[in-house]
Amino acid sequence: MSLTNTRTSYGWVAIALHWISAVGVIALYLLGERLEEAEDRAAKLVAMTNHVSVGMLLFTFLAARLIWTATQPAPAPLERKRPLQIAAKAIQGLFLLMILVQIVTGPLVIWSNARGIAIFDWGMIPSPFPAKVPWLHEAAEVAHKVAPNVLWPLLALHVLGALKHVVIDRDATLKRMLWPTR
């Protein structure tokens, strides 16, 4: 069992980064919901700090995942019909694009107000903007709220595809993302 990918299997690093990213995306959604439901300013501030801080941590894991993916061999795809291969790649690509939209627009919402991003109590990432940029703030805020409306159906399709591989195809697609093989 290897840390690195092979032509037949994902390694432990790729598997861990995938599942950390999955848990992170769900956690960010739940923290975002808590933010929307906060009843007073103090609760909203705590929820915002947690949402933003976890988002910045997730960014580091997603960046590591992209770098790892770019430097590792991809396991050969299992046999499936060409239209399903295209659909799976399209869904995965759009899903990752929506995550990227969230990761880019989240910080822009804060920075465009000429504020830095506090990551828990660890430090601050200063805004690249010396003054407020209202049009950018509005655009980033809208994109950050709209992207999940596309992201969640794509996630559902991704999970349904994994279940199809387990229940209908009875192949090793999901197993490869759970445990490395020799």
Q: Can you describe this structure?
A:
It is a single chain. The protein is mostly helical and 182 residues long. The protein has one domain. The protein is built from five helices and two strands; from the N terminus they run H-H-H-E-E-H-H. A two-stranded antiparallel ribbon has the order 1-2. A hairpin with a 3-residue loop joins strand 1 and strand 2. The protein starts with 11 loop residues before the first helix and ends in a 6-residue tail after the last helix. The model has no long low-confidence stretch (mean pLDDT 91). One of its GO terms (biological process) is respiratory electron transport chain.
In short:
A two-stranded antiparallel sheet has the order 1-2. The protein is mostly helical and 182 residues long.
Low-pLDDT regions = none
| Oligomeric description of these chains | single chain
Estimate what percentage of residues fall within beta strands: under 5%
Number of domains: 1
Reported for the largest beta sheet, the result is: 2 strands, antiparallel
Write down the overall mean pLDDT. Answer: 91
- Number of helical segments with 4 or more residues: 5
Estimate the helix proportion, in percent: 55-70%
Our measurement of the CA-to-CA distance between the termini, rounded to an integer number of angstroms, reads 6 Å
Order of helices and strands: HHHEEHH
List the helices and strands and how they pair.
Elements: H1 12-37, H2 41-71, H3 82-111, E1 117-119, E2 123-125, H4 134-169, H5 173-176
